[in-house]
Amino acid sequence: MGQGIIHQALACKSAGELDELLRKHKYPGLEKDAIHGINRYAAYCRASGVEDLIKQKRSKKKHNNNQKQGSAAIACITDSHQMRVAIYASAIADELGLLKPEKRAAELGAYHHDCGKLAYRNMAQLNSRKRFTAEERFEIQMHVIAGAYMVNTGSVEDRLVAETIAFHHENPDGTGYVEGLSGEKIPVTARVLAVADRFDTMRSGKPYAPAKTFWEAIADLTANAGMQFDPEIAKLFCEMLTLGDRFNESIYSIACRDVEKRFEPAVLQATASRG
């Protein structure tokens, strides 16, 4: 994908090396605990495989110590969010007719898409506010760089997963981060993840914003198609949830669920009531 920061991050050998790269590019850098946690998560992926966490969640096996270190980074969004986004991404990939390696990358990228938030210095604070300082915005952007590094085991297949995570906040109109890619320069798996992640985030809500209704979320995807979302993928996903031949009952049932999120009590007090 060229010599941008993502390409350089995927070549890093340790979180310490990643920290040096981030600081070189004027990002806040990583604190000691973050370096330790990122190294552990990366080591887990390299030892047990990027697929292992999702397999364990599906089989509902009890985590051993090694599995706990792999799931430690998923703290700001519930595991159910990761699984729903993975289900949406997999269904979209099927409907698009993506090849098996791309479908795998879309699904596994969805499950691990926010693992890089372990890089945040104050995760609770950054996930409870809508407005940020310039430095905090750079810190937020670090999560896709760190996440891509963490799941890049060195295999061709897992590099696709890493690139899915790395570019899922790029926008078709070029206004996203971190490299300002646009249109089809953004990997299709990342464009799939962007739609799936945004839809579930809207339906689930955040500490600073109530969940949107099903139709409000559909309207948002439609309104931002071509700007924030790939227009073909956004249109296809909306049709899978609402129209005839493409209607997918299994994802519709998930999309229309009653949404309840497990926030800390202090955060819940600041959250508007949701219908």
Outline:
This protein is mainly α and 275 residues long. Helix content is 59%, strand content 0%. The protein has 15 helices and no strands.
Structural commentary:
The chain is an all-alpha fold and 275 residues long. It has one domain: Hypothetical protein af1432, CATH 1.10.3210.10. The chain contains 15 helices and no strands. Helix 3 packs across helix 5. The longest helix is centred in the first third of the chain and has 18 residues. The C terminus is likely disordered.
Mind sketching the topology for me?
Elements: H1 5-10, H2 15-24, H3 32-48, H4 52-59, H5 65-71, H6 79-96, H7 100-112, H8 123-126, H9 134-151, H10 156-166, H11 188-204, H12 214-223, H13 231-242, H14 249-255, H15 265-269
- Secondary structural class: mainly alpha
Report low-confidence residues grouped into runs of 5 or more.
60-78, 259-275
The overall pLDDT average reads 84
Biggest pleated-sheet summary: none
How would you describe the shape?
globular
CATH topology: Hypothetical protein af1432
What's the CATH C level? Mainly Alpha
* CATH architecture descriptor: Orthogonal Bundle
Element order: H for helix, E for strand: HHHHHHHHHHHHHHH
CA gyration radius, whole angstroms: 18 Å
Number of separate domains: 1
The overall strand count is 0
Assembly context of the chains: single chain
Distance between the termini: 43 Å
Helical residue percent? 55-70%
